[in-house]
Amino acid sequence: MRTLVHLSDLHFGRVDPQLLDPLRELVHELAPNVVVVSGDLTQRAKSEQFEEARAWLDTLPGPQIIVPGNHDISLYNVFRRFLAPLDRYKRYITDDLDPVYIDDEIAVLGVNTARSLTFKDGRVNKEQVEKIRATLSDLAPEVTRVVVTHHPFDLPKDADKQGAEEDDLVDRAHMAMDVFAELGVDLLMAGHLHMSHAGNTQARYKISEYAALVVQAGTATSTRGRGEVNSFNVLRVEPVRIEVDRYGWDSVHNRFQLLATEKFMRSGNVWAEVPDGMMAAGL
User: Fold this and answer.
1) Residue 81 has what pLDDT?
2) Span between the terminal Cα atoms of the chain, in Å
């Protein structure tokens, strides 16, 4: 089994500082095999915000798979936005925009979806998808395949009531999903919406005998919530079973506490939630 801690949308420059130490301490207690950070490390891509983000990330365990978000590209500096959109991210966080972690149980691939030609939307391109194909195609079938992006491939149920819309999905998602089905990608992790969600891709992407698990993280530390408390996910990953714990901020006791647990199982290349009755039976 592998344990992943999934943080997203930190937004240094607009964080709630009282959350930082309790979150760091809990992440260490959870002893993850990989820490995943799915974008928007800063609020406005300023040097001092990246410095603060880097200093805090350095207090967390590794390895870390980090991808940028749309907020990590300068918004108002036109020169920097279009000619050097992620130079500060690469200087302070990592110059690897598509990081990879692989061991004998799990493969976690980060994919940069942030683009300078749009203010908040993101996309994947064919070159990135072919890189994913090259990385995953020779792995043993028992290795769980994970793709991390900032922009999501799916939306939570009733997301429109909280301000999310179809434009928030990553562009060229259908092209990517066809390749993910070929490769047997198991898990898609993302952020961007500041909304927590876990489900599968079956309703949105009609691909025969394939449905990936989608796990969306809320904002771990930002004051920019969408009706949710600050939260993050912990995933316990096995070849045919993934358990998703959602932790949320308890402002009374000043700590993150477990709010919900969802369990999913794979049959063939289809991931589906375990019904309550099966959960009660200990499956």
Assistant:
1) 44
2) 15
